[in-house]
Amino acid sequence: MNFYNKYLDIVKKNNSYVCVGLDTDIKKIPQCLKSADNPMLEFNKQIIDATKDYVAAYKPNFAFYISEGITGIKTLKETIAYIPSHIPVIIDIKAGDIGNTMEQYAKSMFCDFKCDAITINPLMGADVFDACFKIKDAYVFALALTSNPSAKDFFKHHELSDKIATTINSYGVIKTGAVVGATQTQDLTNMRNLMPETIFLIPGVGAQGGDLEKVVQLAKHNTQNPNFLINSSRGIIYANNCQTEEFAQKAQEACLNLKNQINKLLLT
Amino acid sequence: MNFYNKYLDIVKKNNSYVCVGLDTDIKKIPQCLKSADNPMLEFNKQIIDATKDYVAAYKPNFAFYISEGITGIKTLKETIAYIPSHIPVIIDIKAGDIGNTMEQYAKSMFCDFKCDAITINPLMGADVFDACFKIKDAYVFALALTSNPSAKDFFKHHELSDKIATTINSYGVIKTGAVVGATQTQDLTNMRNLMPETIFLIPGVGAQGGDLEKVVQLAKHNTQNPNFLINSSRGIIYANNCQTEEFAQKAQEACLNLKNQINKLLLT
User: Fold this and answer.
1) What's B35's domain CATH number?
2) What pLDDT digit, counting tens, does each position of A6-43 carry?
3) With contacts defined as CB-CB under 8 Å, which chain A residues touch B147?
4) Which of A126, A172, B119, B133 is most buried, with most CB under 10 Å away?
5) pLDDT tens digit string along A202-250?
6) Domain of A95?
7) Residues 97..116 of B with a Cβ closer than 8 Å to A: which?
8) Known active-site residue A94
9) CA of A122: how far to CAs of A145, A158, A170, B94, B130, in Å?
10) Which value does ipTM take for this structure?
């Protein structure tokens, strides 16, 4: 089943639009896990156990795994294998390269790591998308407008982000979503107009300072089918900066809290 | 020693501007190595032994290593460790993300894999560069204009590539180079004008169809200090599609041939 259908099923089952970002930083893992065989993996497993009934997706951030070398790569693979198969997994790798190289990334991410979607950087154009779609059931979230302070440098160059959004829309909602930064609330309406039914992956709520109320209001497709995923990484997995065995419970509370907040805002 | 100084030394020592792209595809490794313990590593070692006196840099392409999973990552690390330390190594990963994530990539590539430079995708703006420069002696090659068929889709949007080039130039030649695609020969003069002394990393000669004569003429800073690296991957490492033990010798011939062609063109 491809990402799109998994998404439709899970938001019904879990009644959630929360994507939990697994940006697992070895330096931030609670003290109580430091002596585990593989602290990163043990941390991820407990986070997944605690949140799996309240999420719509998990999004491991590739950078945090490669930065732990071979152990990190092993951990990424084992983490994805541990996630229940009905919950979609997005590897956040922001890959973008020429055709033959993108094919290697796509093969690796979809067939070896067995994720359901990857994030891509569209700067190099259609080749980036097309190479991924050589893999059956591949789904990509392309960067349309990001939430970091310097996003304006190039995304805002003569409405480049509009042009990217139009491209994303042309690939169709079954195969292509959009990363749309939540700190740019003034742009959310515009992005939604350009991509009416596309699933938005929205980072930047929480640590990056996005305003949840505006995001839900402006980024949703409609109330029944908002067609978005609201990502929180640090705000959930390191909730309350908890260093004891209660960290997973704190993460669960943060996840449930975000889920409920979003659902409440969808009703208003 | 940072990449910039290594580059200045090696082009003098080896009298070469050739960058060998180590896009080592397990499916293209010669038959004669298929039974080796680690065919990818053995292949790379023999290519390095055969070409090390004729190159200015090596550029392993991250995608081809991650696509072999844990073995691939191990091979990437061992390959870089095998390259003589006076030859600069560029990991082609085209990373581009928010600050805290880019710091993970930079830490991994420069401190763990111990490369001298990485390629970055500048779409997300200054944050991508700045996070890398938190690492002492970090050097980045940012995509300014690529050589793939769909490069025009966004790089050509209201001269986005000019704006990126101006940004690259502003970071200074000691820390920042530019990836400039060789198939866009009509743009090389423009790119050189915007980045007069920047080191250009020029892919696309050979398999991607770039015209070497025009590239050397138009992309050089000047004849004494052309300030470029001309990359060839498939054209050198799979020279003549050789399947026998002569593959490394064929690679050496292809590398030497490219080196001599470039040097001859620099004299005219």
Assistant:
1) 3.20.20.70
2) 999 999 999 999 999 999 999 999 999 999 999 999 99
3) 98
4) B119
5) 997 865 556 899 999 999 999 999 999 999 999 999 999 999 999 999 9
6) 3-267
7) 97-102, 104-105, 107-108, 112
8) yes
9) 11, 16, 14, 12, 21
10) 0.96
